[in-house]
Amino acid sequence: MVKKKFDYLSKKVESKIKKDSQKIFLGLLIILSIIFIINIIIISSSSSALGDKIAEIKELNKPVKIELNTIECNDCFNVSGIVEGIKNQNVEILNENTYNKDSNEAKELIKKYNINKLPSILISGEINSEKIEFNNFELINDALVLNKINAPYLDLITDEIKGKVEIIEIIDSTCEKCISLSSIPLNFVESGVSIDDWRKVEYNSAEGNEFINKFEIKHSPALLISNDINYYENIKQGLDQSYLEEKQGFYVLPSTIPPYRNLTDNKIVGLSDLIMLVDESCSSCYNVEINKQILQGLGVVINNEDTYDINSAKGNELILKYDIKKVPMIILSKETSVYDSFVSVWSQVGTIEDDGMFVMRKPEGLGNTQSL
């Protein structure tokens, strides 16, 4: 009886388990189906988004299709670098033309786009694309036109080339130690300035005298720089900051750094004579030649130099004349007074005598000295 009851219960439990298993299986199947459907939706959406992104990237990478026209000008600024810069961008050149300014094609473009400076570059085609930016170009009608061109350029209104600079360098070949101003025009050239004519004229020649009188030049060497330099903005700013005045179409730049020739009295200014006074018996004394290096650092140009021992006749004469107490030391001629940087520090080591000579009084700052 007990066994029958147990079998009955077992069958009932087994039946319930089967029913529950079917329900669980059905539930899992439904869940898996939902997950599968969701995955399909996600994959489809991702594929669509990826496809859109790929299409967007392809569109961005697609070159901008343009046409390029260049109008040349002889002796003007070379625009080949600008043209190459355009070509190196993400562009496809459908058509490229280069015209001489006197050609019919150039004249038509100049009239159509109201161009007043040459050389010029015109870009047409997909010029409204945001993929690329053309700097220094202005939208005129259906084309981008180069609106900022460096000198030299042809002004079509006056039919003159602007920015061809003339340099007249007034020199003094007899003054070998006078400073040269030739580095200034050379720096102009390195900065992109076009120098059309550069002449060197002796200060005492007929032509040199004419320029000196015409422009009231006081020092030689000097530079006369034509006002075409004004078309080079960076150089013009430097000239303005130097407070150079423009006279009769030229800027006058005289040398203010000695040595130079003072044209008022026709004498060379800034050639200093150096005397070095030593005690040859003092082996521990500092090397007086150090002073020459210091003078050079202060811009002083030495014309003549002499070295005297304290026991020589000249040495004794100098000791007595200037009441010298210590050696080694130096004495400089009165011509040294034109070197402002030197004069500003000299009071720390020496005196200026009644005859204008610079006499060193404190040489011990440079090393061992001998008291007299």
Give me the secondary-structure topology.
Blueprint: H1 2-61, E1 64-72, H2 80-87, E2 91-100, H3 104-112, E3 117-118, E4 120-125, E5 137-140, E6 143-146, E7 153-155, E8 160-162, E9 164-171, H4 183-190, E10 194-202, H5 206-214, E11 219-220, E12 222-226, H6 233-241, E13 246-247, E14 250-254, E15 260-262, E16 267-269, E17 271-278, H7 290-297, E18 301-309, H8 313-322, E19 326-327, E20 329-332, H9 340-346, E21 350-352, E22 358-360, E23 370-371
Parallel strand pairs: 1-2, 9-10, 17-18
Antiparallel strand pairs: 1-4, 3-7, 4-6, 5-6, 7-8, 9-12, 11-15, 12-14, 13-14, 15-16, 17-20, 19-23, 20-22, 21-22
Overall description:
The structure is a single chain. With 372 residues, the protein is α+β, with helices and mostly antiparallel strands. It folds into three domains: 64-155, Glutaredoxin, CATH 3.40.30; 163-262, Glutaredoxin (3-Layer(aba) Sandwich), CATH 3.40.30; 270-371, Glutaredoxin (3-Layer(aba) Sandwich), CATH 3.40.30. The chain is 34% helix and 29% strand. The strands form six sheets. The protein has a five-stranded mixed beta sheet with strand order 2-1-4-6-5, covered by helices on one side. Strands 10-9-12-14-13 form a five-stranded mixed beta sheet, sandwiched between helices. Strands 18-17-20-22-21 form a five-stranded mixed beta sheet.
